[in-house]
Design goal:
Layout: H1 2-15, E1 34-38, E2 41-51, H2 55-73, E3 77-78, E4 82-87, E5 97-107, E6 117-121, E7 124-130, H3 138-151, E8 156-167, E9 170-179
Antiparallel strand pairs: 1-7, 2-5, 2-6, 3-5, 4-5, 4-8, 7-9, 8-9
Helix pairs in contact: 1-2
Signal peptide: 1-24
InterPro entries: Reg_factor_effector_dom_sf
Keywords: Signal
Length: 180
């Protein structure tokens, strides 16, 4: 439950009032941003149009619905953390809803389940940073990722992810800015 509450708060901050990232002087104590390629994986996912104003209330039931559908109905084994697949927020400024795919990496042949899909995603090249709510907001972390991409001469792919992992007694959210 803490995972979903934390995720809701992080994403709510990201989804409301998103503006084109400001490219100002960097903070030397800013986030540790790395470039990596996430290996290809098969995901079981549900795609939803989520009202930005209701995102906090919707995240927990949607994440649970997708996990239960994967395990009980599709008979797949979940092999990794909840992954929220998000568009480029700049494309959705001024809109009331945002398309979000709630996804879990899975293994197995499984069965087809209406409203859900199993999709093989190729390698995902991205800039990544771990969210630390004590030193940043979700918005400032996304801004830092966009700024870093520009400084490195990289082009965002309009495909972003937030990977939420259990860590000790809490959760860790890794923000991934997709690259072309």
């Amino acid at each position: 439950m803490a995972l979903l509450r934390t995720s809701a708060l992080l994403l709510l901050a990201t989804l409301t009032g998103w503006a084109t990232p400001a490219l100002s002087a960097s903070d030397p104590s800013g986030p540790d941003i790395q470039q990596k390629t996430v290996r290809a994986s098969t995901y079981f996912l549900g795609e939803f149009e989520v009202a930005k104003s209701a995102f906090q209330e919707r995240i927990k039931p949607l994440a649970e619905d997708v996990a239960l559908a994967a395990v009980r109905r599709a008979r797949l084994e979940i092999t990794g953390p909840l992954t929220l697949m998000l568009p480029d927020f700049r494309d959705y400024e001024g809109t009331a809803e945002l398309p979000v795919a709630f996804a879990y990496p899975v293994r197995g042949q499984g069965r087809r389940v209406p409203r859900y899909q199993t999709e093989r995603k190729g390698p995902f090249k991205c800039l990544t940073a771990v969210f630390d709510e004590s030193t940043q907001t979700a918005k400032t972390l996304w801004q830092a990722l966009y700024k870093e991409a520009k400084q490195r001469g990289l082009e965002p792919s309009h495909d972003n992810r937030v990977v939420i992992r259990k860590q000790g007694d809490g959760y860790q959210s890794e923000y991934q800015l997709g690259l072309l």
